[in-house]
Design goal:
With 537 residues, the chain is α/β, with parallel strands linked by helices. It is built from 17 helices and 19 strands. It has a seven-stranded mixed sheet. The chain has a five-stranded mixed sheet with strand order 3-2-1-4-7, with helices on both faces. A three-stranded mixed sheet has the order 5-8-6.
Length: 537
């Protein structure tokens, strides 16, 4: 079986979809329609889906009734293979879409909201991309309209007019509003072909589709999200190698303005903390320096078994601790460190502590078992996306070298500027550290076949580059300066002298009152008494 095409970055222009109406579909599609109290618009949505150009025998519709009051019922005019799924646990669009995906049967999942009216070729336009590659994520085009005009039509008439290709004639004289933010992003990035890894930011779930296989490979919708679920799903699909396609022939009318358009400021205020915590690609929302998040931007894998278990290596824990502390000391704090070692050997049985064969392991274990940004794991994660939720992974060959404070951020900036998938850092002894984009690894694994060279595929799909360790700020661990807290035991200082040091004011000029002083402390005198410092600085 020939290998499916390799799309570089997000430039899907390398693919040539067939012309509408001039190809033979073979994949089935499940239209998942989440609905909560859409009693008025649902009949028209289903009427439009009943008039689709895509073969009826390959199309099913699953209406997911999210506990509507009264419960939704299927209208007479609908696609032949249509059924209702009642939500019995949880609530919200993300939960409904996920339940619909699990209950449906199609090769492709096509999300479609219960206030959308499709043009005749809407489904077909999506499906032609899925017949080219199994990692396409098409999004449709839509216009927001006042739906009152539509309610004067019989659903059967809507079905017939959609089937006749007349959906574009609906809503005469009614203003047609575009999704301005999305359309603006599309225009700036030539319909996402130039957006690279940022294409996921405008994933549109209300008219989106994905192969069932790609959805299952990802973590899918987060059922706990009440808003922002489309962007969160976009991140998950990017992580498994998805390419985001703007399909302007997949046209729809949106029956009314969306909540995002009507209440954009309130919606964004609600979404920001959720998306900042769950979607590392939303780095502009991670504005707090020194913060860590539920899903880190970078995961660092550090193998330590050899250093901590070889009896010929004395005090191997010292190098490991110094390397890990250097990682945690980086100016870039949005990371998680995985220490890979045989931690099961650390036990609580009676033994002379300094004679413990697992002493070096124990020292490292004790050093980091309470550090929230460090995890002690028995085996290294694989390349599958399920092994991490981070955007990038840095894999060190050992702990012989450690990054200077700005090194990791500079390498990440290099990858972001180029949209590349990998940077290789070569140590003097020939060992290599690798900083890799998880989405790139997933894309390579998705298109690779037996015998393929993964490195060549990575170069083709995303691009790679290499640097010598020294030139990008990776130095021998013993040479890496680390902050040290200095506080020597001394007799108590008078409050007046301490105040002078705190405020950077000569003791004779320091008022005894609590009035504020405008100039902050900046002198060396204060630093001699109480400071953080780096040795040699």
């Amino acid at each position: 079986m020939p290998r499916q095409p390799v799309v570089r970055h997000n430039d899907y222009r390398s693919l040539t979809p067939p012309a509408l109406g001039e190809w033979d579909p073979r994949l089935s599609v499940s239209m998942v329609v989440p609905a909560y109290n859409y009693h008025r618009t649902l009949p028209y949505v289903l009427a439009g889906l009943a008039g689709q150009s895509y073969p009826a025998h390959l199309l099913e519709v699953v209406v997911v009734d999210d506990q509507s009051t009264p419960p939704l019922e299927l209208p007479e005019v609908r696609p032949e293979n249509t059924r209702i799924l009642r939500v019995e646990s949880g609530w919200g669009r993300a939960n409904a879409c996920h339940l619909g995906a699990q209950a449906s049967d199609g090769d492709v999942l096509h999300w479609y909201d219960a206030d959308m009216l499709p043009y005749r070729e809407e489904v077909e336009a999506h499906m032609r991309w899925h017949h080219l590659v199994d990692y396409a994520v098409p999004g449709g085009d839509k216009r927001f309209v006042d739906p009152d005009w539509l309610f004067g039509l019989d659903p059967a008439e809507v079905r017939d007019r959609v089937a006749a290709g007349e959906a574009g004639d609906f809503f005469p004289g009614v203003p047609h509003e575009e999704h301005k933010w999305v359309e603006g992003y599309w225009r700036r990035t030539d319909d996402l072909t130039l957006a690279g890894p940022r294409a996921q930011r405008v994933h549109i779930g209300m008219t989106g589709s994905v192969t069932r296989d790609l959805y299952r490979a990802s973590r899918g919708f987060d059922p706990q999200l009440r808003l922002g679920e489309d962007m969160a799903l976009g991140h998950e699909l990017a992580q498994v190698g998805g390419v985001f396609v703007v399909e302007r022939e997949a046209r729809s009318w949106h029956l009314g303005r969306s909540q995002v358009l009507r209440r954009a400021e309130q919606v964004n205020r609600y979404n920001d903390p959720y998306l900042a915590n769950l979607v590392p690609a939303m780095r502009p929302k991670r504005r707090k320096h020194g913060r860590s998040y539920e899903v880190p931007y970078v995961e660092v894998v550090v193998p330590v078994a050899d250093r901590l278990t070889d009896p010929e290596i004395a005090q191997g824990a010292d190098e490991v601790v110094a390397c890990v502390d250097a990682l945690l000391d980086a100016d870039f704090s949005d990371l998680r460190v995985l220490l890979v070692g045989p931690w099961g050997r650390v036990h609580e049985e009676r033994i002379q502590p300094v004679e413990d064969p697992a002493l070096e392991l124990r020292i490292v274990h004790r050093s980091y078992r309470g550090e929230p940004r460090v995890s002690l794991v028995e085996s290294a994660p694989g390349h599958c996306p399920e092994s991490t939720d981070a955007e990038f992974r840095l894999t060190l060959p050992d702990t012989s070298h450690a990054p200077l404070p700005q090194a990791l951020q500079r390498l990440l900036d290099d990858l972001e500027r180029t949209h590349h998938g990998r940077r290789t850092i070569t140590y003097p002894d020939g060992a290599e550290a690798r900083l890799e984009r998880i989405a790139a690894l997933a894309r390579v694994e998705r298109v690779a076949q037996v015998g393929d060279d993964r490195d060549e595929l990575m170069e083709e799909a995303f691009g790679t580059g290499s640097y010598a360790a020294k030139e990008v700020g990776f130095v021998p661990t013993e040479e890496r300066d680390l902050p040290r807290f200095v506080l020597k035991p001394k007799p108590a200082m008078s409050p007046e002298e301490s105040r002078a040091l705190l405020l950077g004011t000569p003791a004779s000029e320091t008022p005894v009152s609590d009035a504020p002083v405008s100039e902050p402390v900046s002198g060396e005198e204060s630093g001699r008494r109480f400071r953080w410092r780096r040795p040699g600085h």
